[in-house]
Write the structure tokens for this entry.
Amino acid sequence: MQSGPLIDPADTEAMKRRHRWAANDCSGATLIDLMLVVTILGIVTAVAVQTFDTDEMAVDALARQIVADIYRSQSLAIRTNTGVGVAFDKTANTSKFVLADGSDPATQEATLKARPEADAAAVDELVAARSIGNKAYDDGRITAVDFGGASKVVFAADGRAAAPGYVQVVQGDAWLRVRVDDVTGRVTITGP
């Protein structure tokens, strides 16, 4: 038994209309279907974002701050044409810009400016420079520092590091290492 209106098979125009109606009846998704899919995707995304590990985000932020300090010291070494670096203090969880001998640039300002190759503006910038970790890093802890046995990385006037090494930072179960290559002066962040 056939349901629906009976159509004369000879009436081809009526058959074409029925065929178009049937094709339109089951063709693709409706607006409501699309809205439902978008809503479900939104809920799944919101849950995924909330479950992203905050320890990983904190340790990543700390590693990036250390990278910024290291690159700044490298830039200052090139601009001032003298050895400049960053000294890390694990106990205080801080860092500071230092000269190659470990001294504070502010105490050596007159000596630095007296050098014939010194640029006074660059020396002033070095003396005024403060690392991000000057007061203490907010998130995470510095747990290991090793630059050829020293707790500081120092860059020569050409931007090369005096020794390769790393700074390891930890927050909760997450950790990262900031590595410095001595040949290229390149700084990278590596993880577990």
In short: The two ends are 70 Å apart (CA to CA).
